[in-house]
Write the C-alpha cells for this entry.
Amino acid sequence: MKIIDKFIEYLYMPICRNYVRYILNDKPADIVVRSLCVPYFLYLHHYWPRFNPPRSFSEKIFHRMFYNRDPLLTQISDKLCVRDYVAQKVGADYLVPLLWHGNNPEDIPFNNLPKKFALKTNHGCGYNIIVQDKTNLDVDLTKRQLYNWLNKNFCTESFLGLPWAYKNIKPTIIIEALVDDNGKLPLDYKFFCYSGSAEYLLMTFDRFGDLEEKHFDRHYKPLNLWNGAPQHEKKIEKPINYEEMLRLADTLSQDFDFIRVDLYSVGERIYFGELTCYPAGGMARFIPKEYDFVFGEKWNLK
C-alpha cells in the first residue's frame, strides 16, 4: 500500500468520520466537512470540485450526501423496507423470494433453508454471503460475521462517514432465494435514472469474482467509458426483456431526481436488486473525465 493510501485510510478518513459523527451529527455539511472532502475528491477525480452548485455526477453525489436528509432515501436504502416500496410501485412479482428475516443470528433456521440462498444484512453495502451449497457452510463463522455486521453503522464507520441514508437503518438479517442463471450468478443491470427516465446502463459481470463492466446509453449503444473495473470486451446482445427493464427502471425512479435502479434478468424473468442513492459513494473515477459531467448534466437537483 502506498504511503498516501495509508495516510488516507488510517488518519484522514477517521478524522472525517469522527467530525461528521460527533460534531456534525445529522446536520447538513458545514465548511469544515466540505473543506475536508476537497483534497480527497481532487485525489480521486483529478479535478478541483465545486460542491455548491455542483456540476458533475460525482460532485452531485457528494452534494446529496452533504445536504439531502429526505427520509425516503433511508427507506429505499434499507434492503428490507425497500421491498414494500417496490411492491407498491411495480408489484411484488419482481421481488426475489424472501425466505427469512430477523435480528438474531442464533434464530436463523439453517436446517429449513434450501441448498442455495443469499444471506445479507439490510443496512449497508457489501454485507452479503452467497451460499451455493449450505452443506459447505461454516455456520459458526457465518454467525460471527453477521454479529460483526449487525454491530456496524455503515454510515458512521465507512469511508468519510457521509452516506447519511444508511445511518438510521435498524440492522436486520435477510435471507433470500438465490437467483442464478444455469448455476451462475446473473448479470447485474444498473440503470442510472433521472426523474423517472433511465438514461444510462452499467452492466456488471461476475460481481463476486473477476468483475468486468460495460456501459451503455438508454438505447443500448455502448459507451467508451472506464469506471474502475476491467471492460467486458465481448459483444453483448440486448436482452429480450430490455424494454421491460427500462419501463421498470423508469417507474421505480419517478420519486427521485436521481437514483440507480439495479435489476437482474434470468431468461425472460426480471428481478429487483436494489435502489442506490450514492453509487460508489461518489468515488468512482470517470475516464474520460468528460463523462462525469455528461452523467451529471441530466441530474437536475431538487
